[in-house]
Amino acid sequence: MHDNVYKTLEITGSSKTSIEDAVQNAIKKTSKTVHNLRWFEVADVRGHLQDDAIDYWQVTVKIGVTLDD
Q: Whole-angstrom Cα distance, residue 36 to residue 54?
């Protein structure tokens, strides 16, 4: 077993559809430029209102990344 070291990134994703889609968008976009993504934790959920209705969701996730040797 390796003694891994992790870095935690805090990323906010958004979606007009759902909280889950906002999380998926954050992870998908992050994975385009960062490798070794290992886990995520939802840190904050909020939304934007427009005309007294939810316009879109914003979800902040903490993403754990394994550092290279």
A: 34
DSSP letter at 2?
A: -
Sign of the four-CA dihedral 12, 63, 8, 41: positive
DSSP code of residue 52:
T
Q: For residues 10, 39, 35 and 21, what is the CA-based torsion angle, rounded to 10 degrees?
A: -70
Which of 13, 1, 68, 10 has the alpha carbon at shortest distance from 46? 13
18 Cβ contact partners less than 8 Å away, ≥ 6 residues apart: 57
Report the pLDDT averaged over residues 13-39: 97
Regarding pTM above 0.85, the answer is yes
